[in-house]
Amino acid sequence: MTKRKVFFISDRTGITAETLGGSLLTQFPKIQFTKTFIPFVTDVTSAKNAVSTIIEQTKVDGEDPIVFSTLTDPEILSIIATSSPNVFDLFGTFVGPLEKALESNSSRSAGKMHGISDTTAYETRLSALNFTLNHDDGLSPSDFHEADIVLMGVSRCGKTPTCLYLSMHYSLKAANYPLTSDDFNKLKMPEVLRSVKNKVYGLTIRPEQLSRIRRERRPEGEYSKLSNCRKEVSIAETLFKAENLPFLDTSTVSIEEIAATIVQAMGLH
After folding, report:
1. Which of these CATH numbers, 3.90.1200, 3.20.20, 3.30.2010, 3.40.50, describes 119-265?
2. Cα dist. 65→61, 68, 154, 246 in Å?
3. For the whole model, what pTM was predicted?
4. Low-confidence ranges of the chain (pLDDT < 70)
5. Which of 128, 148, 175, 247 could bond 167 through an S-S bridge, CB–CB 3.0 to 4.6 Å?
């Protein structure tokens, strides 16, 4: 497999550069990319240091790296442009045409997307995150009526990371409830969730994958045995269908895709 070095340069955190550039790189599956992030390039000195880093790497590799930039300052960007013939200005590509289409000049300000320009929205996100942390793994079910979404499924099927993603990226109050042996024996909606059934979304997973994940956490005992995982998954899916609950198999789906699917399916905003 071919290997290439990639740099993500930003005047703030680099999240946008990573997201946009990373998305483009997924279209080249036959190339293995080694990624380096250089955030907070805000002045001439830091820009020159970044250029030196990139040039040194070029000498080691003998090949010009790919450089993705979300820099907003033209002077700093011009310095970065000297680092490699393969510098992609992710903002400049679109800002110019947008200014023309909107008949308005852009602010060319750094960190607008991830800053705290909207205090209310930021506080809402923090509130959602705090709620999610305090209602993980079935904690405080009496408060589930305050949740925007309640995920239900067997242990280790992806409930917690999905909830955290929903709170961080969608500002949703996401709780989750792990199905236990008691729930499996009753084969019906847990009573603590009955009053919020319209908010419940099920997650399932292939038994083989579940067994592998559980072995990493608890290699011994019934918990991670494939036979037990098959039993739990089967009962969970039977419960979802009996209660007419929407559910998703997370086996081959990323956390981002799981969250987006849930938001769309449940009509959340």
Report:
1. 3.40.50
2. 9, 10, 44, 45
3. 0.74
4. 108-118
5. 128
